Amino acid sequence: MPKSRIRKKDEFTPPPAKQAASISLTSGRSWVAPLMLALFLIGLAWIVVFYVTTGDLPIQSIGNWNIVVGFGFIAAGFVVSTQWK
Q1: CA-based, 20 to 30 A from 11: which of 4, 50, 70, 81?
Q2: How far apart are CA 2 and CA 6, in angstroms?
Q3: Do residues 14 and 42 make contact, with C-beta atoms less than 8 angstroms apart?
Q4: Residue 81's CB: how many other CB atoms inside 10 A?
């Protein structure tokens, strides 16, 4: 039986190392995180105050719509969070 030829393999050269991307925390949108957190907390506080005071506060005349207002603040916080980089 004939003997097979031995093939010479090329030496393995690893790909060049990638440089780590530098992350700038002060990219000009430093207002986004504080505003987002403030909107979340205002919405949460609005709903909590409504439940704790059994509907007397924050605005008694709108009744259960206070819950919608609270969730509106929270939704606005999520909208602002899309601008965070």
Answers
A1: 4
A2: 12
A3: no
A4: 15
* Tokens 């965070």 found at: 84
Whether residue 66 contacts residue 73, with contact meaning beta carbons closer than 8 Å, is answered with no
Tokens, residue 57: 């506060």
State pTM to two decimals.
0.65
- How far apart are the C-alpha atoms of 57 and 61, rounded to whole Å? 9
Pull the structure tokens for residue 67. 């819950």
- Please state the three-class secondary structure of 38-55 as a single string: HHHHHHHHHHHHHHHCCC
10-residue stretch averages of pLDDT, the chain, 85 residues long: 77 82 66 94 96 86 92 96 84
